[in-house]
Each structure stands twice: as C-alpha cells, then as structure tokens.
Design brief:
Order of helices and strands: HHHEEHHHHHHH
Structural class: mainly alpha
Number of strands: 2
Number of domains: 2
CATH superfamily of the largest domain: GntR ligand-binding domain-like
Distance between the termini: 70 Å
Strand order of the largest sheet: 1-2
Shape: elongated
Number of helices: 10
CATH topology of the largest domain: Four Helix Bundle (Hemerythrin (Met), subunit A)
CATH class of the largest domain: Mainly Alpha
Helix content: 55-70%
Low-confidence stretches: 9-14
CATH architecture of the largest domain: Up-down Bundle
Strand content: under 5%
Largest sheet: 2 strands, antiparallel
Mean pLDDT: 88
Length: about 240
C-alpha cells in the first residue's frame, strides 16, 4: 500500500497582545456590534470598566489608543464619542504585526517605582553643582510655561538629572529610557488632553519644593514629594489614583 503524501500544514505564529490592546479591541467591537455612528456617545469609563472587569486606568489607556487612532474623540467633562469608523483594509492598532511594547500606564507605574526611590537617594548624594543645575532647569521651565503654556524638554530633563544625582547609573538609565518612551503618539494624546496652565504651574512648584528637600538632605521628604507629584499627574493622565 502506497504511503500517503504528507500535506504541509501552514501555521501562523500567535501574536500576543497587550492588555490595553485587548480592551481597545473589545470597545471597538462594541461600537461595531451596536452599530454606533459618528457623534454617538460611548459608555463611560466607569461603565466600561465594570463591563470588562478591568481597572479604570486600563480602560483609559485603551481609550487613548482609540483616540490616537482617530476612532473616537474625548470631550473633557462630557464623555467619549465615535469619531470615524476605519476604512476597509485599514490596519487597526491592535493588529500590528509586532509587539508595540508596554503602554503608557505600565511605563508610568515603572516611573513611580523607580523615581521615588531615586529622589530619596539623590537627597543623600547630590552635589552643590547639581543642585545649581536643577535650579537653572526649573528657571527655564518656568519661563517656557509662561511664554508657551506647554511642556518643554526641560520638564523631563529635570527628572533625568535628579535620577543621575542618586549615583545609581543603572536605575538612572532606566529612567532615561522611560522618559524617551514619552515621545510616542499615545503620550502626545495624553498630554494634549491635560496640559493646562494650572497643571504646569503645579509642576514648577513641585520642582522648587524638591530642590528645597535636596538642599536639606531630606531623603524622606524628597521621596514623599516625588510620590505625591506622580500620584497627582497619574490621576490626571489615567483618571484614577495611582496608589
């Protein structure tokens, strides 16, 4: 009896998705299932969080994906609305062939873990010349905010220099990498939604208070200031306390 020829089986690799991609996909499928049209309002983030069994910050992150892709529009204080349905054959954000990497929420939580400890270490190790450099950075930030009302490069440079003052080059490098990730379209969407003059001025005040703690060699105070600052802006970014 002749042996049967083997038919090659063509398999495709399974591409794992990040949680925020899964949530964005499910929200989009809800839009399609309910046949929502442009300008129709989506359920609230709280309601979506309840339906999907995930945290509100995770829902907020998924909404940022949809907003960045131009599929929804967020009106602060009003809600989220369908903007456009994608054209046929358009690749959606969760259909990317490669892993897009950790989303903004995961990146931000990593910053909270690292920067609070590094602020404490910086207070113990910082040199006078580094304090003077931080003061110069804050002066430039304050001037830039007054002139443009926007975040500039010095906002992030302050965090990088503070991390470097900890004398832990490994962790400082991680902070630099996390800050470099802040240049993605998703982060531009996040900041564009919450960059107000009031918020930016609070950021300047935080930096001035941090310099005061560094001058006093107040490690506990520096750590507390950083935690409070990141919890505040995390709540603004993701809609819930980052505790």
């Amino acid at each position: 009896m002749a042996a049967r020829a083997r038919v090659p089986v063509v398999m495709q690799a399974i591409k794992p998705k990040r949680l925020y991609q899964h949530i964005a996909e499910q929200i989009y499928e809800q839009v399609r299932t309910l046949k929502l049209k442009p300008d129709d309002r989506l359920p609230s983030e709280i309601e979506l969080s309840r339906q999907l069994g995930v945290s509100r910050p995770s829902v907020r992150e998924a909404m940022i994906v949809l907003e960045t892709a131009g599929l929804i529009e967020v009106h602060t204080g009003s809600g989220s609305y369908v903007r456009n349905l994608p054209a046929v054959n358009r690749q959606l954000p969760w259909e990317q062939p490669t892993d897009p990497g950790p989303g903004p929420l995961e990146q931000f939580k990593a910053r909270m873990v690292l920067e609070c400890e590094l602020a404490s270490e910086a207070a113990k190790n910082i040199a006078p010349r580094e304090i003077a450099e931080l003061e110069g950075i804050v002066a430039r930030i304050e001037r830039h905010v007054g002139e443009t009302g926007k975040v500039g490069r010095d906002h992030f440079l302050f965090h990088e220099r503070l991390a470097e003052a900890s004398r832990n080059t490994v962790l400082a490098a991680y902070v630099r990498d996390l800050i470099a990730m802040n240049q993605t379209p998703m982060w531009q969407t996040i900041r564009g939604r919450v960059e107000t003059l009031e918020n930016l001025r609070k950021g300047v005040e935080f930096r001035k208070r941090m310099i005061g703690a560094l001058r006093r060699r107040d490690a506990r105070g520096a750590k507390t200031l950083m935690r409070q600052h990141l919890q505040r802006i995390g709540g603004i970014y993701f809609g819930e306390s980052m505790t």
